[in-house]
Amino acid sequence: MPRPSVEAERREQILKAACRVISEKGYKALRVTDVARYAKLSAALVHYYFETKRDLVHAAFEWNFSRSLERRKSILDRHSNARDRLRAFIDSYLPRDEETEAAWRVWAETWVEALHDPDLRKLNERIYGEWRSIITEIIRLGQAEGLIVPGDPVLLANVLVSTIDGLAIQALVGSEHMTIARMQSVCDHLVKTMSVQSAEPVQAALG
């Protein structure tokens, strides 16, 4: 039996490799042998940690989300006010670097599979609830600071989250009308409309 530290390290290797395969090839094309090759482990060892492909993929989807939040923890402490924190947090989710784009591709695969898998729907509901809660709390703090417009923080968070998701999917599929730069412009404008010093209509961002 491997030591606990070795087990944690190997699980990390396997989940990271699984996310890479999902990002590059998609869920349907994922093979345990590909995951093992990327992880530089044997297929038998992958099966030791994850008995089935389904177990592996579910764990990879959850790991992808946890990793995304972990990479952004410093953002929450880097800025002195909630409005700047919100802007930086959103900016960090723009799929303009390799790691963030790969994470978005895994997210897209999660959503597709959740259409057919009740367990994945539950997983999506739980981890997406955490993501919405983070945005909601930042907005609530910004309202308390007088920097974000009054209103239901949950509603405002849902507007932001749905906007980011929709724009990111368009950017990922290479839309000529929704480039990364355009996505950033729309997100920046939306944050401005939520700021106390700006009351410009959101429609202006859509041209």
Q: Which short descriptors sum up this protein?
A:
Arc Repressor Mutant, subunit A, 2 domains, 74% helix, disordered C terminus
CATH-assigned fold name of the largest domain: Tetracycline Repressor, domain 2
Q: What would the principal axes of the Cα set say about the shape?
A: elongated
Count of domain modules? 2
Work out the strand percent: under 5%
Give the biggest sheet: none
The CATH class of the largest domain is: Mainly Alpha
**How large is the count of helical segments?**
11
Broad structural category = mainly alpha
Domain HTH tetR-type: 8-68
GO molecular function: DNA-binding transcription factor activity; transcription cis-regulatory region binding
Organism: Thermomonospora curvata (strain ATCC 19995 / DSM 43183 / JCM 3096 / KCTC 9072 / NBRC 15933 / NCIMB 10081 / Henssen B9)
InterPro entries: BetI_C (IPR039538), Homeodomain-like_sf (IPR009057), HTH-type_TetR-like_transc_reg (IPR050109), HTH_TetR (IPR001647), Tet_transcr_reg_TetR-rel_C_sf (IPR036271)
